[in-house]
Amino acid sequence: MDAADWDARYAAAPLVWSAGPNAFVERDLAHLPPGRALDLACGEGRNARWLASLGWHVTALDWSPVAVGKGRRLAEEHDPPLDVEWVVGDVLTAPLPAPLDLVVVAYLHLPEAERRTALRRAWDALVPGGTFHLVGHDTTNLTEGTGGPQDPAVLCSAADVLDDLADAEVEVVHADRVTRTVAAPDGHGDAGTAYDALVHLRRR
After folding, report:
1. How far apart are CA 185 and CA 120, in angstroms?
2. What pLDDT sits at residue 188?
3. Residue among 62, 86, 67 at smallest CA distance from 76
4. pLDDT at 101
5. pLDDT at residue 39 in the model
6. Secondary structure of residue 198 in the 3-state scheme
7. Checking CA distances to 139, which of 129, 151, 158, 180 falls within 20 to 30 Å?
8. Structural domains of the chain, ranges and CATH numbers in brackets
9. Residue by residue, what is the 3-state secondary structure of 115-139?
10. Which residue numbers in the chain have pLDDT < 50?
């Protein structure tokens, strides 16, 4: 999907994703002291807004102007307004803020070479001691799980992400497959189990 396709998807519903943060992002990052953060491929900005509500200074970047516009509106409507810099841009080429204390990458699905470029650019913006947190549909979700992209070329495992950063100074907090329950489309009951790759790192 290109930016226009995502614009159409975001324009078709009040919110494509949940209003609150991703459950793994909330679980793993709530204890961190606030600093400067980047939400890479932020979508409607659910993680960016949550981080800002905790006192983080957040840059939220996505290539869909519709998604970024939604995130900006929701941040401005919050009482008090949330401190988020909203940027429309490509994760492969857009200038990234630096230095960063935290990078969040939630469900960014790209072919291998592009994924490696995006993740290395974000990693290189981190300060020593900074946190890198990635969650996305695991490769095994295609055959074992529910939902997510159906193209194996854009899926990855935690091991793939570690390979992307193989020559970096990495301290691994967590890198493995995790599960989550997917709600049924009508909101009644569960549709099944999804398998995600979760990679939580600190830069040495």
Report:
1. 35
2. 57
3. 86
4. 98
5. 98
6. strand
7. 129
8. 3-203 (3.40.50.150)
9. HHHHHHHHHHCEEEEEEEEEEEEEC
10. none
What is the predicted pLDDT for the residue at 49?
97
**39, burial (CB in 10 Å: exposed 0-12, middle 13-18, buried 19+):** buried
Q: What does the pLDDT read at residue 186?
A: 60
Name which of 149, 36, 49, 162 is nearest 103 in CA terms: 36
Return the half-sphere exposure (C-beta side, CA atoms, 13 A cut-off) of residue 97.
Answer: 19
SS3 173: strand
Q: What is the C-alpha to C-alpha distance for residues 204 and 192, in angstroms, rounded to an integer?
A: 38
Contacts of 107 by beta carbon, 8 Å cutoff, 6+ apart: 41, 43, 135, 136, 137
CA–CA dist 193, 138 (Å, integer): 12
CA nearest to 117, candidates 91, 95, 99 = 91
Q: How much is the pLDDT for 184?
A: 72
Cβ–Cβ < 8 Å for 159, 172: no
Q: Which two tokens stand for residue 147?
A: 């939902």
pLDDT given at position 181: 92
Amino acid letter for position 50: W
CA end-to-end distance (rounded Å), the chain: 35
Distances (CA, A) of 110 to 12, 140, 141: 23, 16, 16
Per the DSSP assignment, residues forming a β-bridge with 168 are: none
CA distance 115 to 154: 8
**Whether 191 contacts 123, CB under 8 Å:** no
